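Ops channel
N.P.: pipeline sanity check, posting one input/output pair.
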């Protein structure tokens, strides 16, 4: 049976993704704060940004969970096939 190891991201990749996230949120927040509009508009845009970030995290987690479920299902199916093949004797004609 083929073993599927866990995916390990390099520390450089993790740092880069967190840095990109922090920088993008910071710059967008800075832009919203400095918009030449009243507080209601800034609040509406800020709320939209917060919901967009939250839904992005949810979508990423859901996509990852679906991928892991499919991988686990594929491994279980492969194990069942291997068990059937190991029990099969082509010379036994009973």
């Amino acid at each position: 049976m083929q073993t599927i190891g866990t995916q390990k991201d390099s520390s450089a990749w993790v740092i880069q993704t967190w840095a990109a996230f922090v920088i993008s949120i910071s710059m967008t927040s800075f832009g919203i704060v400095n918009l030449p509009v009243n507080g209601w508009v800034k609040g509406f845009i800020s709320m939209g940004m917060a919901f967009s970030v939250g839904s992005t995290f949810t979508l990423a987690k859901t996509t990852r969970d679906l991928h892991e479920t499919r991988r686990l299902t594929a491994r279980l199916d492969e194990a069942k096939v291997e068990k059937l093949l190991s029990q099969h004797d082509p010379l036994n004609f009973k």
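N.P.: looks fine end to end. The mean pLDDT is 84.
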